[in-house]
Amino acid sequence: MADLPRGRSPLDVMQQDMERLLDYVLRYKRPPAFLSSPTWQPLIDMCESEASLSILVDLAGVKREDLELTITPETLSIRGERVARVQGQAIVCYQLEIPYGSFERVIQLPPGLNISQISASSRDGLLEITIPKRRPGTVRISIQTA
User: Fold this and answer.
1) Tally of CA atoms within 13 A in the half-sphere of 132 that contains its CB
2) DSSP letters of 34-97?
3) 4 within 8 A of 10, measured Cβ to Cβ
4) What average pLDDT does range 58-73 have in this prediction?
5) Domain boundaries, the chain
6) Is the pLDDT of residue 40 over 70?
7) What local confidence, expressed as pLDDT, does residue 44 receive?
8) How confident is the model at residue 111 (pLDDT cuts 50, 70, 90)?
9) What is the pTM of this model?
10) How far is C-alpha 140 from the geometric centre of its chain's CA atoms?
11) CATH code for residues 39-132
């Protein structure tokens, strides 16, 4: 067990450590890297029109070849990685707020979409995904006698 400062109990030391951590989080609005999740989630806007569902994903700095999109009737999964531009030990950083590393975002989709007609395009750091709605149709059902 590590040596404790004279006259301080383990609970006192733990309380001081928790207060320092809370102060850090409140001051910098971001926990230290060792407490962060290994993945992050990009921000999205999801809007529905009469004809389609549009999803706009903020992916500034993510290369198209580093993205993977998969879709099921219930979910759209966006996976990828943003590589850190600031690397090495020869510099001093005063703010590091941009999340780097691998990410995953799974979006629940509403029913009634034609997922076979999905399209995606990327421009100015935004990924735009459009999924058209299935056209409602009337199907006549014949009734057979047993």
Assistant:
1) 7
2) GGS-S-B---EEEEE-SSEEEEEEE-TT--GGGEEEEE-SSEEEEEEEE--S--SSS---S---
3) yes
4) 94
5) 1-36, 39-132
6) yes
7) 96
8) very high
9) 0.66
10) 43
11) 2.60.40.790
